[in-house]
Specification:
With 300 residues, the protein is of the alpha/beta class. Helices cover 42% and strands 19% of the residues. Helix 2 crosses helix 3, helix 4 packs antiparallel against helix 7 and helix 5 runs antiparallel to helix 6.
Amino acid sequence: MQRALRSCATSTLSFVNIVDRFGLHRTHAAVHVCQTTPVEEQHPMMVLIGGTAQSIGAYVGHTRQFTESGRQVLQYETRGQGKTQLSLRDATLETHVEDFANLMDALKIEGPVDLCGFSFGGRVSLAIAASMPEKVRRLVVTGVPADRGALARCTLRGWLSALEKGNLEAMVWCSIVETHSERFLAQHESRVADWVQQIVQANTAGGLHAIVSQTHHDDPNHPYHTVSLSERVQCPTLLLVGKEDRMAPEREVQRLADLRGWRTEVIPKAGHMLPLERPVEWRRAVLSFLDTEDLPEASY
């Protein structure tokens, strides 16, 4: 069942009920989604999954442009993000895959879809493509490395420390500092405080703590580590990274791509928040890959 919140010519915000087996009595729970429909649909559906603290609003500009290219776009807030009302008892990547499958069933989307994930959403997308290869035609992952490195690991510990104390605002300030390039922050410093408040109002400390604490794996032998997931992905895949990304270093993104023979594109003058810092270049790279015909599948 969908309860529409707001509609316009090409987009609808709604809550979609799916089964949440971790909720009380396994009742249905609401997933916050945004669907856009082009005037003339010309391509497979695109599914966008945002980063840790990103709500649907973070991709409004992108969804509009993707829709104008003839794509139906689905964006949803995962378990732990934004307004989605799913239990936080289990927010592992395995459960995120199950949530995706339940959402596709609820919306009667058979697929395969083009899956596009950023950062945390990129890891969710990798897990979906690895676990449900029949559901994904092509995969675009932004800001996901083979190994995140010491700086990013320490940053995540700082986020967890703030979230464990319920200090969501401190976590958001830290995340903005670490995920944007110095150039971008200098250009937009007067707006940062407003961004912090918007992110705080859109999320909960408990939800983001569940994501950060349950979806990051540093052991490459863990079945949901990015390297382990990559070994099971069958569809053509593109990895994108900002040249100045400190959370997903360029060399580690390239290493992940080299392990599977995937395409890589490094976009200059951007940090981890590549889709925000270089939106035109990011969309161009995504669409160019999705529109290219006869791409080879991953090598083994």
